[in-house]
Amino acid sequence: MTRARALTELEGAVLGVIRAKGPCTPYAVRREFQASTTPYWRVSAGAIYPLVARLTRERLIRAVRPTGDARGGTLYALTPAGGRALLRWLGPPLTPLTVGAPPDPLRTRVGFLGLLSPAARTAFLDEAADTLRRQLAELAAVADGAPIDPFERLARRGSYLAMETRLTWILEVRKALGVPIG
Amino acid sequence: MTRARALTELEGAVLGVIRAKGPCTPYAVRREFQASTTPYWRVSAGAIYPLVARLTRERLIRAVRPTGDARGGTLYALTPAGGRALLRWLGPPLTPLTVGAPPDPLRTRVGFLGLLSPAARTAFLDEAADTLRRQLAELAAVADGAPIDPFERLARRGSYLAMETRLTWILEVRKALGVPIG
DNA sequence: ACAGCCATGTAATCGGTTACATGATTGG
DNA sequence: CCAATCATGTAACCGATTACATGGCTGT
Predict the structure, then answer these.
(1) What pLDDT sits at residue A3?
(2) Which bases along strand C come within 7 Å of a protein CB atom?
(3) Nucleic strand C under 7 Å from the C-beta of B36
């Protein structure tokens, strides 16, 4: 009984997608991630195919049948071991890295805002606020008329709330620094 | 004039720390990150020393003097090119990846909560809520009596707000799923 | 004095990105 | 029909992690 290694975030999420959507090609999994609202999940071809090969080698997924078309694609599904690995990754229990404050490049930069001239600081904060407002509008638009799974909906709600909080925080920062009317 | 490559988040933040604190040893920079409130910035020895070597090779930082003790440490400071690289990394302008929704492993998992049994789901959400509450208390405690830079304070405030929002969101999820009294 | 931590590194490995290659499919 | 895009991969590289090695420093 060789100890099961911990899955990466991407591996766990890929298992989750395959489990939730049924047998998938690697490409279909990739599209699923690209459709997500966070730009973080880019999932290049160079990531997904080796990842699928890895999970197959470890018997967490297996090829169930070819797609049928002439491109030679293959549909993969979870094995029982894959299902167990998914549940272990998903939790409970939750790891500190899962629950702890996620990284935020915008927040990192605000910590160094003292290094900018007042003018550049204003430009930074104004651009941040504008972009956040635009992205919030997009998120709201996507939410309307999207016939999606309730759990995916809750996750997107979390994303929306996070963005909203970032915007109010940026406005608070601007006020705290006494930035002239934005 | 060879084109300057883009800096990674870690490289940019390291330049920022050195600029803000004055000449530092690599180890001192590392401690600075470990003291941050997000568990994401672990900055192993195997990351920081090669990174410092890289930035030195590219003339963005330079060794200014030895620490003096017998351990052979070296203090590094920014070069003028390093200062410019820092400002380019910091922005404005801001990239979509900087402003866009940051990744959140908790949010990712909530999207797959449908795969858990109701009991496991309750356990997941209760554990998440408990941990978030505990971490919020810690963050508040740290905030009191911390004589820090105003910009670092604003960044921590952002971290606190983000955690607070995640907690209220988790409670909302629990209510939406009709979880029996937590 | 010496156990345990501090500080400075190095080597192997790993998971991901970018860039490229190739053939199937589709829209005008 | 042919250009653009879809779909399936591969190769080279890169930045980070884990694990290890070494020696200085410090508290009891």
Answers:
(1) 67
(2) 7-12, 15-21, 23-25
(3) no
